[in-house]
Amino acid sequence: ASVHESLYFNPMMTNGVVHANIFGIKDWVTPYKIAVLYLLYEMSTTKPMALLDRRRLNKLILPLQQGPDLPLEQFLKIVEECCARMANVVKLRLFLIADGELQDMEHFFTILPNAFTDSEAFKTSVVGLFMRQMLLAYNKLSFSQVYKLYKSLQQYCHRSRQPELSAPPGEDMELTSNEDPSADHIDKVELDKVTPHHSELWSDETQGPLSQKQAEYFLARQAYLLKNDENKAMSPAKLQDELNNILKFNPDFAEAHYLSYLNSMRVQDIYISTHSLLHYFDRLILSGGEGKSNGDEGYGRSLRYAVLNLATLHCRFGHYQQADLALQEAIRIAQEANDHVCLQHCLSWLYTLEQMKGSDSVVLTEDSVKIAAHFCLPYLASLGIQSLVQQGAKQGMLANRLLDGLRGTDIMHWKQSLSELVEISLAQTTSIWRMYGKSTMALQQAQLLLNMNSLEPVNFSVQQNNTEAFAVALCHLAELHAEQGLYAVVSDIMRHLKQQFPPHTQHAKLWMLCDLKIQFEKAMNDGKYHMAEPLVTAISALNSTEGLYRKAQLMKALNQTSEASKILQHLQQRCEKSKNIEMTIRVMLASAELHWDSSGFATALPLLLQALALSRQHNLQNLASETVLHLAFTQLMLGIPEQALVLVQDVLESVLAHGALIDKGRALLLAARCQMALAGTTTEENRLSAMELAVHTLDEAAVYFSRLDCKERMRDVYYLQARLLHTLGNFSQRNKCAMLFRLLDQELPLSGMTVVNRL
Questions:
Q1: How far is CA 10 from its chain centroid?
Q2: I want to staple 633 with a disulfide (CB 3.0 to 4.6 A). Which of 264, 280, 387, 759 is the partner?
């Protein structure tokens, strides 16, 4: 849904330029712009200049022209980073005018064109256009206005001599451009520090509204950052204040209303977002730029996309009925106008809405892909295929068909340079491999996404897109490292996620849920059930299904079997209704464990066999291996150790290759117990070798449990090793294991779950 939302109508980003033709005032002269003009004049007249210094200054010109007015001290500091001599010359020139007379400023504007008379750049370049605009604006000033400008220039220069009166530093304005950083020694951090916190819209000296160019640059920059790196954009409250300032001087500035809509969506403010979205389309129609009533342009197109935007807004907030009504209205208007592109977007949102409501949308999605391909809309066709792959994975479609479909779309993505869809495809492939239990392949795909060079030019120092695909990949990485006991790495990944996706952002819930699940599993492995209890409440707030499953796990660990059984029954009904196969299998396994404790091991067999059939049908190798281990344990408890050991050996290779540390340790512990049971039925000679093999297997299991610091499992291992070593007559090792067992038994609380009655 988030991809569709930014796809079809983003008026802020047409080739990276905002179309703002509403301002009546094009540009005007300010003291800051006089300082920029002096810099350009000195650069033009100063011929002997180091090549590196000139290159740095050239890269600085465009941001200085397009950006907001800066106090003189900050302006000089930025120039000094590029060329200290030039900063001193500009400072000296400005103070000579400020300490002199009005005619000195008049003389500067008189001689300014002479420096560029012989240069073609004066007519065609960005610098030339800027200087001509300033000269025209200055020549239109009356004498009183020129006098006020001179007085404001004096104040501008004198304030720089009083640092305590300057605006405090902020963090939102970056003046670096997106070129080779090796040739640019401007420290980006320093540039961030010297930028104005007071306002990106106001100058302390002019106290006026933004010019058209400054407003265009500000809106384009903030819109780009909101799309690609929200963390570097202005904070929601501050950005809204700045937009309100723009709209105060020009209420009909449509693009400012649209940026207000995007900003309100960051904080889930439905009132302001709806208000701004409606105002955007109202102002767009009233601006006079559109005169047709239908067709590709005109009022009709704005109205169609206005209703479609309103539908996406309601989808984001979960108002499915209102979203459905808005979609139907958009479809009706688009049909009247014969707008096939808009109809295709509506169809894409229609199947997305059905998925959000939990309905089967395969037929709608297939229709959408066919029509998008017919009208040559590769973006929408690819999104439809991605959706079909996701639904196919949940419904048990063959893995080779799914991956072939993804491979076909990847070829199209690279041909069309659709970088956003490449990221989505890699993230989806990571999730599919993870669902199938192939952790190595999932890790490879996640790393491929995170190390991929973007296909689109990255501006404003954005190095990594803050999209859902990156959040999903990083969450998978965190969970995969947590499964291997690498909690220090997990904390680093989580710290990066919190920086890239602050809590107020759209995709923050992904890492919040991931972090809580990792903490819960660690607390359960450590036997710290009192710490797991508040985590269950937090998980339930983000995902009710995951919260119920974790609550059942906690109740089972606390021996509250009746409460756990009720929760699992309710959860199974919910998962069967929503066709959540993965969670259904996990619920079956948890229910089978409850049967072990209550009604006996034989009653758990039907549930386990059903879970095994489902996991194999849907290619869920990890869950299939876990189910086989449950079956093996059940057979061991029913007195069939030979068959139990065969089952364990069948899945042991897969578990050791792709399983979590806890699963590896449990599988080896179960194999050792089967070997111990078989040792009792063999001859005396074979018995000793079987027991030694069991001790060796327990040593391997202990390695995995110790890496997880899973003390309860270590206690079980030491207990079994002490019993085996006692039978083998190795009393010194037996005493060591017995001592370790006793220390852990005294440290850990009493629990009804022992090595005898649990997997």
A1: 20
A2: 759
